[in-house]
Amino acid sequence: MTLLTTKIPHSRLDLGQDDIQAVLHVLESGQVAKGPLVNQFERSMAAFVGVRGAVALSSGTASLEVALRAMGIGTGDEVMMPSYVCAAPWLATVRVGAHPQLVDIQLEAFSIDPEKVEETRSANTRAMIVPHLFGLPADMPALEALDIPIIEDCAHTLAATVGGRPVGSIGSLAICSFYATKLLCAGEGGMVLSSDETLLERARALREYDEQPRLETASFNYKLTDLQAALGLNQLHRIQSFLDRRASIADYYHLRLGEQDLVLPAVPEGRTHIYYRFVVRIPRFRGTPESLAGLVARLEHRGVQCRRPVFRPLHQYLGLEGFPRTEEASETALSLPIYPSMTDEEVERTAQALIEELA
After folding, report:
1. Closest CA to 310 of 102, 129, 138, 88
2. Mean pLDDT on 73-86
3. Is 58 within 8 Å of 191 (Cβ atoms)?
């Protein structure tokens, strides 16, 4: 076989015949735009997360923007967020006219550092976007104690818990994503979730502009379709099997890689990890970012596609300094393939390739 046909991708869809049939049923019905399946998907997701309601939207990034606008955040306001995250929180904040205030992370969990938030907050701080990265929740008790309204970003971490509470049920609002490689795949899509009915009503008003009692300048077409909702619903029915397979692969990685010069994912007391990503740190690469790039290239040559878990921290885009733990994560963190459709042979090949390259 060629390298192309034997390659283990970093991410891969898990679509079954039932997923395909669910989408075909919608096509055959003729109701392909926003309709009853979107409403059902919202109710099912709200019940799954443990909140009163949900608003389905066109993407996770749109969900962040709508969440900010629903909270009344705009020009002159400040929104706290970690630098070690994708661009979506920064982009959504800028789009509503607010100022993104970046802070460093807790390295062990790759999540926003409550102490840095407290040091950096100002009189203009109106909210905090808290991404639960790679499947592990952030330190929510410490963040809640700061008394700053929280938007939980659960794009990586649906079904994880903190102190027995599901992520997404703790902040004022939560968002999730249904992009193709996320925990639940709808191709694209997102959702705002909350138990605050006033915030939910504002989010619904921002999602669409037709047949509204008044013109809302911030409203836009952010609707999800029944085609996407059908796929998302069917994936939600299968989520426990997805989580079980991820946990099984993570257990194997912990076993095989435990003796290597790696920092493996740790789970702080009171939190659960659902392993959306299996992210290791390689301490010897600290201060030598090209070493990590070289390892990624060598693993790719072996047919194992690994990635930096965050392509580039936000502070690097903006030319800012003062984020040492984010810098360390950027230089040392490596994301290994982990998804439900991985075969046992692919899991073993991945572990063995990493062991040999680190030798």
Report:
1. 88
2. 98
3. no
Question: What would the pLDDT profile of 221-240 be if each residue is shown by its tens digit?
Answer: 999 999 999 999 999 999 99
Residue 5 pLDDT grade (very low, low, confident, very high; cuts 50, 70, 90): very low
In this structure, are residues 106 and 81 in contact, taking their beta carbons and an 8 Å threshold?
Answer: no
Edge-to-edge strands of the sheet including 125-131?
53-57, 190-194, 173-177, 150-153, 125-131, 78-82, 99-103
Structure confidence at residue 216 (pLDDT): 80
**Of 23, 12, 29, nearest in space to 227 by CA:** 23
- The 10 Å CB-count burial string (b at 16+, else e) for 243-263 is bebbbbbbebbeebbeeeebe
The beta-carbon contacts of 181-184 under 8 Å, at least 24 apart in sequence, are: 181/11, 181/13, 181/339, 182/60, 182/155, 182/156, 182/276, 183/156, 183/158, 183/159, 183/239, 183/242, 183/274, 183/276, 184/158, 184/232, 184/235, 184/236, 184/239
E strand or H helix at 231, and its extent? helix 226-237
Side chain identity, residue 331:
E
Of residues 190, 155, 154, 149, the one with CA closest to residue 171: 149
DSSP structural state of residue 284: G
